[in-house]
Amino acid sequence: MAEDSDGYTDYSIVEEPRYFLIRLSGRSRGTLIPETANAWFGTFDDAAKYFIARRVAAPTRSRVLPDLVESINTRWLDRGLAPGWDQLDQPDPGGFSPATRYFRSDQPERFYFTVNTDSATSFVLNLGWRELNSTFSEGLSGIESIPMTKFLHD
């Protein structure tokens, strides 16, 4: 974006004793953005899906296809949680309250917190890697000619 051309955002996924933390830092219009926690996940797989979907694929799609009526992420807004997910009000791992812990009822090790109330992420995390890839690439012309990565479950 022109107003942000001198900036950058640096993301990292950090393994902590009980969760995986997504941190961000960077610079925007000459102002340094201090390193801050952005989201916490119980599994690396879920942290990676969130990062790929929300921080890479969604912004890339909106730049490549700016005239889309609906972005991928908005299709899940106002639908509540994906099947199998539940929520509990509790401080996030950084101690911020009020916050919401979203978790799989059948797999309590799969949980997440984001800096904003975010039930739509549960839909992203329910997707397999192949589904995630096809969901965020739908409508992109020429995508069918790009070789598909082999996924663990293939």
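(the above was protein one; protein two follows)
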Amino acid sequence: MNPRIVVGTLKHGFRSKRKIEKDSIQFGITSTYVFMVSVICVLLLYYVWILNVNATKWYTIRQLEIEKTQLLIEKELLDVKIAELESLGTITKDSETEGMEPVESADYIVVREGVQYVYNN
């Protein structure tokens, strides 16, 4: 047997430079992988949150558009009712106008800007 070879156990804390370098590279790869998975999860949660916010806004906008359409239809119906009430046929058939007498001689006044008028009859 060769006297230079010593058989025994290695010290517990002994690590070669190659082993330390390999472990640091392995730790770097693992930490990068964990970081990337975390970023992807955060982006996925952000995407779901944005979808929810936009869906809520679009629902509100859709409800407002429906209300706007209903109000426009109601406005048109009211305009038709106003036009009907202001029509000449409706005015002549009204009970308040039946007791009125026609005007025999009408006096008209013309108003112009910057001129003061005095009406003497």
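Reviewer note on protein two: The chain has a mean pLDDT of 81.
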